[in-house]
TrEMBL record:
Reactions the enzyme catalyzes: NAD(+) + ATP = ADP + NADP(+) + H(+)
A single GO cellular-component term on record: cytoplasm
Origin organism lineage: Bacteria, Pseudomonadati, Campylobacterota, Epsilonproteobacteria, Campylobacterales
Protein name as catalogued: NAD kinase
Cofactor(s) essential for the protein: a divalent metal cation
Organism of origin: Halarcobacter ebronensis
Length: 289
C-alpha cells in the first residue's frame, strides 16, 4: 500500500464545464453568481445539457461533448453530484472542482462564499489536485467504475446471501449475511464507515472489504493492497443486487462471478491547498473530540 501524492496542475484555466445538482432549478441565482465570479477571473463556463435544461437555458452540451471542450469540470451540489460527475467523465481524465451546495460535503470543500477567493488562488496555481483510486467491477461481460464503493447485496430483506470470495484466484472467505462492501479509501467514510469499517486515508491505494450484518462473529473488515484482483461468486438461488456508488443498480444471478480490481486511471479532484483530511473528519464527524 502507498500514498499517491502529486504536484500536478491544470494545463489551462480558460474553460470550465459546469454540472449542477439534479432537480435543483432553484439554484439559478446561485449559479449566475458563480458564473459571474468565473467570468471576472477570465474563465468561460459551459453548462452541461441537463443542467442547462433544468434552469431553462437553451444552450448546453452533453457531458461527453462538454469534456472535450473544457479544461476542467465544476460540480455544483453535494457529494452525490460530484460522484456522478467523476464517474460519468472518467474516461476523459479531467480534474473536477466541487463547489459545496449540499449537506455533508466530504468531497466538495469549496463553499459558495469562498468561490471568488478560490478562483484567485486557482489562477495563480495555489491549489492541489488529489489523485483518488477508482475501482472497476467486471460482471456478465460488463464493466462498471466506482469512486466510493461497490456493494453486493441480498435481493430480499427476508433472507441472507452467501458469497464466496477469492483473491488472485485463491479462496479466502465465505460471507453469509446482508452483503459485502468493496470500498476505495475515498469511500471508507461512506457506507463502509456506517457498518463499522475502517477509515483509510483517501490518497492510499488499497481496497477495504467490509461485511454487512455478517452472520458470524469471526467476520471482520479487511484492508488489502490495490494490486490484487478480488473475485466474488454469488451462491444464492435468488441472486444478488450490485450497487455502484449507491447510484446504479445491476441484478446478478446465482453462480455469477464478480471481479473487482483497481482502475487504470484515477479520479482527479481540485482542492484548496489548506484542505486537511483530518480537519474534515473533525468538522463532519466530530473526529478526535
Amino acid at each position: 500500500m502507498k500514498v499517491t501524492k502529486s504536484d500536478e496542475k491544470l494545463k489551462a484555466v480558460k474553460k470550465a464545464g459546469v454540472v449542477l445538482k439534479p432537480n435543483s432549478s432553484d439554484m439559478i441565482e446561485d449559479f449566475l453568481e458563480i458564473k459571474k465570479y468565473f467570468i471576472n477571473h477570465g474563465i468561460d463556463t459551459i453548462l452541461e445539457k441537463n443542467s442547462a435544461k433544468m434552469l431553462g437555458f437553451e444552450k448546453g452540451l452533453p457531458l461527453k461533448e462538454l469534456c472535450k471542450e473544457v479544461d476542467f469540470l465544476v460540480s455544483i451540489g453535494g457529494d452525490g453530484t460530484l460522484l456522478s460527475v467523476v464517474r460519468n467523465s472518467f474516461e476523459f481524465n479531467l480534474p473536477v472542482l466541487g463547489i459545496h451546495m449540499g449537506t455533508l460535503g466530504f468531497l466538495t470543500d469549496v463553499l459558495f462564499e469562498e468561490v471568488d477567493t478560490f478562483l484567485t488562488d486557482l489562477k495563480i496555481g495555489n491549489y492541489k489536485i488529489d489523485n483518488r483510486m477508482m475501482v472497476e467491477c467486471h460482471v456478465d461481460n460488463r464493466c462498471f467504475v466506482a469512486f466510493n464503493d461497490i456493494v453486493i447485496s441480498r435481493r430480499t430483506v427476508s433472507s441472507m446471501i452467501k458469497i464466496k470470495a477469492k483473491i488472485n484466484g485463491i479462496s479466502f472467505n465465505s460471507y453469509h449475511g446482508d452483503g459485502v462492501i468493496i470500498s476505495t479509501p475515498t469511500g471508507s467514510t461512506a457506507y463502509n464507515l456506517s457498518v463499522g469499517g475502517p477509515i483509510v486515508y483517501p490518497l492510499t491505494d488499497a481496497f477495504i472489504i467490509t461485511p454487512v450484518a455478517s452472520h458470524s462473529l469471526t467476520q471482520r473488515p479487511l484492508v488489502m493492497p490495490a494490486d490484487i484482483e478480488i473475485e466474488f461468486k454469488i451462491k444464492d438461488s435468488q441472486g444478488a443486487v450490485l450497487l455502484i456508488d449507491g447510484q446504479d443498480t445491476y441484478e446478478v444471478a446465482d453462480n455469477t462471478v464478480i471481479k473487482v480490481n483497481i482502475a487504470n486511471k484515477k479520479a482527479k479532484l481540485i482542492h484548496r491547498t489548506k484542505r486537511n483530511f483530518f480537519e474534515v473528519l473533525n468538522d463532519k464527524l466530530g473526529w478526535g473530540n
